[in-house]
Amino acid sequence: MEYPTLKPYKVCENVYAVGGVRRSHPRDSAVYVVIGPDGAVLIDCGSPYGFERREKNLRGLGVEITDIELMIGTHCHYDHVGGGAELKRRNPAVKIALHELDATACESGDSDLTCAGWMFRDEFPAFEADILLGDGEILRAAGLEFEIIHAPGHTAGSVAVSTVVRGKKTVFTGDCYVPSCERVGYDYEKLMETTEKLLGLGADIVCPGHLGHLVTFPVTQAMKGKISPEIARAVCRFEPPAKIVSGIASFFYEFNVIEQALIHRAR
Ligand SMILES: [Zn+2]
Ligand SMILES: [Zn+2]
Fold this sequence. Notes:
Elements: E1 9-12, E2 15-19, E3 31-36, E4 39-43, H1 51-60, E5 68-72, H2 78-81, H3 84-90, E6 95-99, H4 100-108, E7 131-133, E8 138-141, E9 144-150, E10 159-165, E11 168-174, H5 188-199, E12 205-208, H6 216-223, H7 229-236, H8 248-260
Parallel strand pairs: 4-5, 5-6, 6-7, 11-12
Antiparallel strand pairs: 1-2, 2-3, 3-4, 8-9, 9-10, 10-11
Helix pairs in contact: 6-7
């Protein structure tokens, strides 16, 4: 199936989305590459599929898969890091970093916690993380620095990743402010704390792990008086106007629409 049609999305100089629903494979989260003076770093690597397309997209930017020194996984979900084992096969030197609370699910290939089974009807190709992340940790790779912000809620070991690119504070959020479900260890209180934490980061550029419809949750909760409208408004600043649709077809449709507007300034 010739599905992907979009070229890499340029976030800013040296930061591109090279993977996503229409950039690499329908099962992929957004996959970002940050190109440094000394190699490159991936934020998430996508599902076990779509590698050819991601490699092609990288190559178009002058980056070979073997130039990837580090992959920071935002959390253990299949669409974000299900391709970790394959990434290692294609580049044995790559280091994979995950928060310690999510790394075990990837090591055991936990079908529930990674979403692989019940959501994607697939197996999670297990892999071991090389680096276990903790809050506030600074990672150095490819001549760049990345700050890890533990941002639990969506999963216990979700992280946001902050780096400065040409003077701009660029934050990769993965699914940090996205509601999930109990099956993957969803914690509503923590998600709200995380949302506030993210809003306090003062990001210049925000690179989300997916997108628009996901913001409707805080909005509807605010409408029900369960969280403050202030939070909902603030979360909305991450996203284009949310389009509320239902059903799997519209789910993918929406991802496509949203991918066009992948990047939004937090302020
Ligand atoms: Zn997720
Ligand atoms: Zn996701």
